Amino acid sequence: MSMSEFDLIQRFFTRATPSALLGVGDDAALLQASEGNVLAVSCDMLVNGTHFFADADPYLLGHKTLAVNLSDMAAMGATPRWATLAIALPSADEEWLKKFSDGFFALAQLHGVELIGGDTTRGPLNLCVTIIGEVPAPQALRRSGAQIGDEIWVSGSLGDAALALAHRQGLTVLSGIELAACEKALHQPQPRIALGMALRGIASSAIDISDGLLADLGHILESSQVGAQVDLLSLPISTSLRRHFSQLLGKQCALSGGDDYELCFTAPRERHTELLSIAAKLDLPLTPIGKIVAGRECIVHDGSGKPIKLEISGYDHFR
User: Fold this and answer.
1) Of 17, 20, 148, 259, which has the maximum CB count within 10 A?
2) What is the CATH code of the structural domain delimited by 151-301?
3) Residues of the chain with pLDDT > 70: what percent?
4) CATH 3.30.1330.10 fits 5-139, yes or no
């Protein structure tokens, strides 16, 4: 006997929501922001064939579906609280749904996120999450606060997810060990929630790196009306990617590959030591990669300090 839409929701996507006034099961959820906080709201969609392959592991896909939204909360310095999930399914495959929901809720539980509603329909596989978090209004991180003289920082390492995709597309060949590490970066990104919260009152601007470092840093520059100088050799990259860094592909992965879900942020130079302490406390590498300058351009310098020309842009769905 096939499941109905409501059976599917009840079986795989209904969990307790103690922090919501009203959760799954009504026409809308009812939420109450904590005293002194404002709500931060973001929405991301993952489409089969665009954001993931048809044979993607459903558990890891469940993880990533929520992770990309949590990354937006991290970029705002927000504490994630609630989420909704809209999902289009070709069929009600119970084994697939069990693995997907297990991956989704494992990450949700780790970050204290409650699923409070959503929608299901039949159609090509499409996953859309709206994430809701809280942040004290004066401490919300934005893209518009970068100041001339600020240092530019990134968390973690860049480019491994793009390198895994390049391997899948036949553009390069990775060893088994390299591929395993790079595929973990692609399929199981770790949203930097704790870092985002630690950056409140320290970072002057922030963004998560989803479309590529240069494209996302460009959003900060546009919003802040400033320019940037980036040191190519300062970029934090893995041993696997460094092996490709003499080629254009390696530089493309680090600078414009996307799918990193690390944070790029700016901060005054006098907060440098404080940021290194945060890195040690969180056991998360934080690397200064350049500085904010006057103007509107983002210039990438090579090891000798000379500007280099790279025909590189971030991911754009309509180009």
Assistant:
1) 259
2) 3.90.650.10
3) 93
4) yes
In tens, the pLDDT along 226-262 reads 999 999 999 999 999 998 888 889 999 999 998 999 9
Cα angle for residues 236, 239, 240 (degrees, 5° grid): 110
| pLDDT tens digits along 250-298 | 999 999 998 999 999 999 999 999 999 999 999 999 999 999 999 999 9
Domain positions in the chain are: 5-139, 151-301
Number of Cβ within a 10 Å radius of residue 126: 16
266 bridge partner residues? 152, 205
**Cα(50)–Cα(223) distance, rounded to whole angstroms?**
28
Between residues 52 and 2, the one the model is more confident about: 52
Label each residue of 139-190 as H, E or C.
HCCCCCCCCCCCEEEEECCCCHHHHHHHHHCCCCCCCHHHHHHHHHHHHCCC
The amino acid occupying position 253 is C
For 295, left (φ over 0), alpha (ψ -120 to 50), or beta?
left
Q: Which residue has the tokens 């906080």?
A: 37
